Amino acid sequence: MSPRASYTLEPALTDPAFIRNFCIIAHIDHGKSTLADRMLSVTGVVSDRDMRAQYLDRMDIERERGITIKSQAVRMPWALTDESGFEQAYALNMIDTPGHVDFTYEVSRSLAACEGAILLVDAAQGIEAQTLANLYLAMENDLTIIPVLNKIDLPAADPDKYAEEIAGLIGCDPLTVLRVSGKTGVGVPELLDEATRLIPAPVGDPSAPARAMIFDSVYDAYRGVITYVRMIDGSMAPREKVMMMSTKSAHELLEIGVSSPEPTATKGLGVGEVGYLITGVKDVRLSKVGDTVTNFAKPSTQPLKGYSEPKPMVFSGLYPIDGSDYPVLREALDKLKLSDAALVYEPETSVALGFGFRCGFLGLLHLEIVRERLEREFNLDMIATAPSVIYEVMSDDKGVTTVTNPSEFPVGKITSVTEPMVKASILTPKDFVGTVMELCQSRRGTMQGMEYVGTDRVELHYTMPLGEIVFDFFDHLKSRTQGYASLDYEPSGNQTADLVKVDILLQGEAVDAFSAIVHRDKAYAYGVLMTERLKNLIPRQQFEVPIQAAIGARIIARESIRALRKDVLAKCYGGDISRKRKLLEKQKEGKKRMKMVGRVEVPQAAFIAALSGEVESGKEKK
Ligand SMILES: Nc1nc2c(ncn2[C@@H]2O[C@H](COP(=O)(O)OP(=O)(O)OP(=O)(O)O)[C@@H](O)[C@H]2O)c(=O)[nH]1
Questions:
Q1: Which of 72, 74, 119, 553 makes the best surface tag, with the fewest CB within 10 Å?
Q2: What is the reported pTM?
Q3: Where is the Tr-type G domain (predicted)?
């Protein structure tokens, strides 16, 4: 599609009256990135020749998985013709935001940098749980909402029905809900027109001391930290000295510019503009998201309202399969941390797995992504222990202990254990309400209410332990509802529960990597599951190996692996000594990939499979 804007936009320092800042909010897969791509080509900032799918998703993982992890900001020119035929040039700043619940904090940051939000809804699916969550966030930030139905090219699209649904939700006329296709481009120019018309211009004081809000900070191997900001008051220019208000650290601005979508240096940034700063800082922590940047010589006294820091919710131990890779893993984590402020880690050791790190993540998707990046970008092979949430354990002798690793669960008399809770909302077609309620109850959920959205869908509200959601809840929810239900959740304090630690013992010795904190009612099931899994995974040894599950000293499940002596030379009769030696060498190599737990040899693969649940067993297939 050829661009409509027939003029060139001044690179920056635009009059705020002609700036529009907006973001696109949507449920995952409703087509944000595709629409953003289309906007880039419609506005002409990316030529058709340079266009590639998911232009703004720069990480390989983002592109492969088709998801957005980091927010991106891009400036685009647009022209609006008024009734008298006068064409006015505008600068549109679009911030693409991630849709997955793990990355909600990225969304809230982007929202605070905008005056408007395009609420994008798949015309074949309608409103989903994250549509609602993001919409509420946008409303809290007082943004102008532009409702849009996407994917109207799909044969299954039912725009009339879903326009009604959206109208009912935000209280507008169904006819004002725009209809577009990010794929074919239909309706996109009209959407940009409407956004330009309806979204208010940014307001700020151009003569006040400079204040810019940091909404993202990324580490670039060549340029150091690139800080993305939205100017609120005043202006900034290259070579100026700026100060981060929370740390009072001062830096010289080496470069200031806008992304359009490639970084373009400018003479400065003025009120309402969105752009980037480069100061030569090497650590993203010095350029903290939510902080206010001001002028060093003429500082502002009033910092802008920051964001709450992202808090890790799920912890897992990461261990290199080859112990000698430990320093590489440390370095890799240090590097990832530069660009991922939400990642936390500290060294830990495991009897079974050796040296590794206990890492904190925003959720399971975040964990998977970090793990994949470590494997891919740093060539590391790793074992990740079962994810755990944060428990607070009260014991008589130790007081309160915060436990993120089951092996730290205190021994002795425990008075109470609290676990993190979440408020979950699940949106499902009404036919599946029964099965969803059953699932939530089996995960210790307490129902808080339900309401209809449109005529055939229901939003269910539950409080549930986070620990019950983070593992496979979503998979079960999807399979029970034929993929139709969607889920969103937010933290909701802590609550006491009857939780116990289950240990798994091999020949009487506890294997720390397999310990888990579970509800007492589920302890037996976990014990049976793990002992059975391990029985299938650990090869027979020269002696019998009992596998037991225990709560404290009480054994709750038991399996055993029968004894066997594997004589590799059995088939090697005759006198060929070199062949025998070769076989023995091969056996030795194999043993290197084994971990010794007491006297028992456990293959690495067994740890990986037992921890990831990749074992075929009748009991696991629910
Ligand atoms: N038919 C059709 N398919 C579309 C349209 N827009 C997006 N899609 C498809 O929908 C899927 C999801 O699109 P994305 O743009 O990656 O979705 P997203 O909302 O950006 O996803 P996240 O970045 O993970 O939040 C992709 O397979 C797209 O090709 C459209 O207008 N029509």
A1: 553
A2: 0.70
A3: 17-203
